[in-house]
Amino acid sequence: MLKKLNWLTGSAIFTTLISTKTALAEAKYNLPDPVSPLTREVYDLHMLTTMIATIIMIIVTAVIFYAIWKFRKSTGYIADQNFHTGKFGTWSWVLVPVIVLGIDLTIAGPGSRILKQVEENIPADITVKVIGSQWRWTYEYMEDDIRIVSNLLPKEQAGDMYLREVDDHLVLPVNTQVRFLLTASDVLHNWWVPAIAVKKDSIPGYINETYTYVDTEGTYYGQCAENCGTGHASMPIKVEVISKEKYVQWLKGRKAKAQTAAAEAASNKVRTLEDLMTRGEAVYQKTCLVCHGATGAGIPNVFPAIKASPIATGAIADHMDIVIKGKPGTAMTAWGPQLNDLELAAVITYERNAFGNNTGDTVQAADVKNAR
User: Fold this and answer.
1) CB neighbourhood size of 331 (10 A)
2) H/E segment holding residue 278
3) How distant, in Å, are the alpha carbons of 73, 211, 282 from that of 117?
């Protein structure tokens, strides 16, 4: 029986060692490689803590196994009932707290220094306001009046990168001080890209602040780190860091695109149903599909259907009101601040004529402007 126990113990240890080697090889399960000074500090602290915890685990496990083996009942060992009165038993009450305190201070020193860096107020070259919403991110470049709405890319388009890829993403220049102003439009969110920035809560009605200085070009991914609801997994983050020269060209392109969209939205042109349906479908897929589905059927008991709904087939004024202003207490966010008049008119028209609704109604940008 003892030989069998020894064989089982040896097998368990061998299996553990093999598993550990495999885990070490799978470095992707660790934090991604940091590419900014602050995230490198955080990464180093993380590795220090992990190393200390691993050493403690090994020592404690070894002592436990030694005690089980050395003082097992089968050898006739009788437990010492006066262990606490001996020198070792007495001094352990002093040594153990001292060791624990020493370990804590080893971590607390660099930890306190990093926390101070997290709260530093460093003058920035670029300021980006990050707004979390159920379930998307909006990026506003404060100096350049550019807005990016970033949504989860559907599985059919994302492929193996599903829940990582988005339809539009944040772009930053390399070697540039960037300040992030973090807030939310509905519930708590948390914008976190571990390679480039520390995480801070995005709180409705409140502005949190963090910063980054990325020194390596590349594409970096993150996720909402706050359990913000049933669509929590549908809030991936993608950040592309490019050279300063490419960033200048990118800015020019985005500004021109924004100006064109603003001019179209401000125009009093009366658009055809076909034109509005084409534009509306694109807006729907970008902003509404995650909750209401590709067929407009929604998710029973979670998200209402657009198909044959009393809103999409009822009074146009009520439909515009809920899309523009949202519905408090639900996941229906207010799209008025996020979409321009033409986009809102197009998506409302699309919802009233897609999925078999076929009301024949059209909503123009001027109608939305008057309803705001």
Assistant:
1) 20
2) helix 273-287
3) 55, 10, 43
Q: Give the chain's end-to-end CA distance (angstroms, integer).
A: 81
Dist CA 322 CA 300 (whole Å): 20
φ/ψ (deg, to 5) at 214: -85, 125
Domain that holds residue 23: 1-27
Residue 333 corresponds to which tokens in the numbers above?
Answer: 């966010």
Judging by beta carbons within 10 Å of its beta carbon (0-12, 13-18, 19+), is residue 286 exposed, middle or buried?
Answer: buried
Last residue of a domain, one of 260, 277, 296: 260
Classify residue 134 by its DSSP letter.
T
Helix (H, G, I), strand (E, B) or coil at 314: coil
- Could you tell me the CATH number of the domain that includes residue 199? 2.60.40.420
Given a contact cutoff of 8 angstroms between Cβ atoms, the answer to whether 42 and 198 are in contact is yes
pLDDT, tens digit, 9 for 90 and up, residues 192-205: 999 999 999 999 99
Which among 283, 318, 288 has a CA at the least distance from the CA of 303? Answer: 288
- Residue 341: φ, ψ to 5°: -60, -40
The total of structural domains in the chain comes to 4
Instruction: List, for residues 58-78, the tens digit of each pLDDT value.
Output: 999 999 999 899 888 888 888
Point out the domain boundary residue: 118, 140, 175.
118
